């Protein structure tokens, strides 16, 4: 049982903050007596505090009613002892110290501190709670153990209630009840019941009883449901036992069928490996043939190129020293040819400038000729007008002995003028003819210079190609001498032909019909085995065929790309361009290849659709068989007699989709 020992008060209400007032509590009872206003309970002013309020504050940390603004602490503006004021003091600290023994008999000490400060300007006060300390104040306790705790590391109010051995409600309403709240036993029934429930702590027991009642009701319902499920499960178990026996019989039959299927799969795999070996031999033979054909094509191309080079190249019958001397003299020859080419270009430039000058002169002569023709036409027109005027005058004027002379003079003048005009025209024609001849001569000179320029350029390119070829031959000869073994295309071609002849000897043409017949027999046997398998086996075969087709297509595409790139490279190097007819053929071949790819994609889509339909059909068959197996034994027997032979054609269904081991509640209801 807890006991109160001493209470020390300082700075609370009317208690002097400079002195500590200590009250000793005695057993079994301590009575506080005094006249009115001595501090037993509450004095007439709001600045005093009773010992009971200090006890409650020390035990619970709650301030009295209406003291939140700082009225619980001594006001710094109030005079002390009626004689003087706390001059120059703006802050007052209050302390309540309680020493007691807890329920274990250990003496404890609880200290709570408050502080009141005047606001700036003297317009009021503010109060704040300082750190409180709860410690052990017993001489018999262990000095090494922890002696004190503060509000910074634990909840002081909770610890005080635990140490006093009573609840917070009893402390507030019974032990340290404020005088203003001491009439709570006379309050309303609802409030009174709530206070008594809090005092006796019956609320949690009431909630526990309600939870127990609800849980009991729920458990009773669960028991009834579980009993119904148990009866249904017992009936299901009886039926499941009979079905399990049938399942064991079917599983033994299924194991036998699986063994048969495994044997057929092993035979099929042996045949497949044999077919793959034959197919690989055929593919190697085809590769050798294609390689030999490519080598022959390269030989033909090289032969054609050699013939072209021989036709364009002049063979020099000279020794190596003479050839080396010619090679050494080749830079000087190239330099002289470059000088001749530069001289020819300068002459061509001069001829072009001279041609431009002659062209300008010719244009000027043409303009002068046109002007003279216009003047001649004007003169002829004037002569015609003069002759007409003379004729008119001769008709109007009578005859005169000088008329004949005038006519003769006019005729002579006319003939002279016409002669001068003819001479002028002849000179113009002669000059034009001479200018044309000079222009033709210049054009022929320019053409000859251009031809000589092209010839020199061709000879320069030919000499450069000859030099490169000689260097290449020298490097090849040096490499052959260094390696000690010739490596030429002719040798590679001969080796390829020898390999082809060896392969043809290993697989002569007479054996091809036998191989074809054996392949046909094996294919027929494989078809027979395939018909004995299920749709899943057909799907596997389709997948294998698709993989082979894909591999063959990839190999053909690779060979096609390599040959096409090699052919294009050789044509570009040897011929300078790709022939038009071959380009058309290549375009058509590419279009056919694209069409074949589209057909292959369509076939793959059809294969995927067929596989999906087959899997869906297998799933539907599985569901139907499970439904029939669950419905009744009679239908199971009919299914086994009519559809069990089809079961062997579905290896995946036999392996992955075993009959069910239990029935659902829905099929149990249908069974009942």
Automatic annotation (TrEMBL):
Principal location: nucleus
Cofactor dependency: Zn(2+)
Basic and acidic residues biased stretches: 436-445, 552-565
An example Gene Ontology CC term for this record: Mre11 complex
Coiled coil stretches, renumbered: 223-382
KW Glycosyltransferase (keyword) present: no
Reactions listed under catalytic activity: ATP + H2O = ADP + phosphate + H(+)
An individual GO BP term: double-strand break repair
Keyword field: Chromosome, Coiled coil, DNA damage, DNA repair, Hydrolase, Metal-binding, Nucleus, Zinc
All residue ranges annotated as the Rad50/SbcC-type AAA domain in the record: 6-248
Domain of life: Eukaryota
Disordered: annotated segments: 430-458, 484-513, 546-565
Stated family: Belongs to the SMC family. RAD50 subfamily.
PANTHER family recorded: DNA REPAIR PROTEIN RAD50, RAD50
Protein name according to UniProt: DNA repair protein RAD50
Upper taxonomic lineage: Eukaryota, Fungi, Dikarya, Basidiomycota, Ustilaginomycotina
């Amino acid at each position: 049982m807890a006991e109160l020992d001493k209470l020390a008060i300082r700075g609370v209400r009317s208690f002097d903050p400079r002195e500590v007032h200590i009250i000793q509590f005695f057993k079994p009872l301590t009575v506080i007596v005094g006249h009115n206003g001595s501090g037993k309970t509450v004095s007439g002013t709001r600045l005093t505090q009773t010992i009971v309020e200090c006890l409650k504050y020390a035990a619970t940390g709650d301030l009295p009613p209406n003291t939140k603004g700082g009225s619980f602490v001594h006001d710094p503006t109030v005079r002390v002892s009626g004689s003087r004021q706390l001059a120059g003091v703006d802050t007052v600290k209050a302390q309540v110290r309680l020493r007691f023994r807890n329920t274990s008999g250990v003496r404890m000490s609880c200290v709570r501190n408050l502080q009141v400060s005047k606001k700036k300007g003297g317009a009021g006060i503010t109060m704040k709670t300082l750190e409180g300390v709860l410690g052990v104040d017993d001489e018999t306790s262990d000095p090494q153990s922890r002696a004190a705790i503060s509000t910074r590391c634990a909840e002081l109010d909770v610890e005080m209630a635990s140490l006093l051995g009573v609840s917070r409600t009893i402390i507030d309403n019974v032990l340290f009840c404020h005088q203003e709240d001491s009439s709570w036993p006379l309050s309303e029934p609802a409030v009174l019941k709530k206070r008594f429930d809090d005092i006796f702590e019956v609320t949690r027991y009431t909630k526990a009883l309600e939870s127990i009642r609800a849980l009991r009701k729920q458990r009773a319902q669960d028991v009834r449901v579980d009993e119904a499920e148990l009866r249904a499960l017992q009936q299901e178990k009886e039926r499941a036992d009979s079905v399990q026996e049938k399942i064991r019989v079917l599983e033994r039959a299924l194991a036998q069928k699986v063994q048969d299927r495994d044997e057929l799969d092993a035979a099929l795999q042996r045949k497949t490996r044999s077919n793959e070996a034959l197919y690989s031999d055929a593919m190697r033979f085809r590769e050798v043939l294609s390689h030999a054909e490519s080598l022959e094509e390269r030989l033909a191309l090289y032969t054609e190129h050699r013939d072209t080079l021989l036709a364009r190249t002049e063979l020099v019958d000279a020794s190596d020293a003479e050839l080396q001397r010619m090679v050494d003299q080749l830079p000087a020859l190239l330099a002289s040819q470059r000088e001749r080419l530069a001289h020819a270009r300068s002459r061509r430039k001069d001829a072009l400038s001279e041609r431009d000058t002659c062209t300008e002169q010719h244009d000027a002569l043409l303009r002068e000729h046109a002007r003279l023709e216009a003047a001649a036409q004007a003169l002829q027109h004037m002569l015609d007008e003069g002759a007409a005027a003379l004729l008119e005058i001769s008709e109007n004027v009578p005859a005169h002995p000088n008329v004949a002379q005038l006519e003769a003079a006019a005729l002579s003048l006319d003939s002279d003028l016409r002669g001068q005009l003819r001479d002028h025209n002849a000179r113009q024609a002669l000059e034009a003819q001479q200018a044309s001849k000079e222009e033709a001569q210049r054009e022929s000179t320019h053409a000859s210079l251009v031809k000589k320029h092209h010839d020199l350029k061709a000879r320069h390119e030919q000499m450069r190609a000859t030099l490169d070829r000689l260097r290449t031959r020298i490097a090849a000869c040096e490499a052959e001498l260094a390696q000690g073994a010739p490596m030429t295309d002719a040798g590679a071609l001969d080796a390829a032909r020898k390999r082809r002849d060896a392969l043809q000897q290993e697989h002569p043409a007479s054996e091809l019909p036998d191989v074809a017949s054996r392949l046909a027999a094996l294919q027929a046997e494989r078809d027979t085995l395939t018909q004995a398998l299920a749709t899943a086996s057909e799907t596997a075969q389709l997948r294998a065929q698709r993989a082979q087709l894909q591999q063959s297509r990839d190999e053909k595409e690779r060979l096609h790309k390599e040959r096409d790139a090699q052919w294009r490279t050789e044509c570009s190097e040897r011929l300078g361009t790709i022939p038009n007819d071959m380009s058309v053929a290549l375009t058509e071949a590419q279009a056919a290849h694209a069409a074949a790819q589209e057909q292959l994609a369509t076939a793959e889509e059809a294969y995927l659709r067929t596989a999906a339909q087959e899997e869906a059909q297998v799933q539907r068959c599985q569901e139907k068989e499970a439904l029939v197996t669950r419905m009744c034994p009679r239908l199971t027997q009919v299914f086994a007699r009519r559809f069990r032979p089809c079961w062997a054609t579905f290896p995946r269904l036999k392996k992955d989709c075993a009959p069910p081991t239990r029935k659902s509640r829905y099929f149990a209801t249908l069974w009942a």
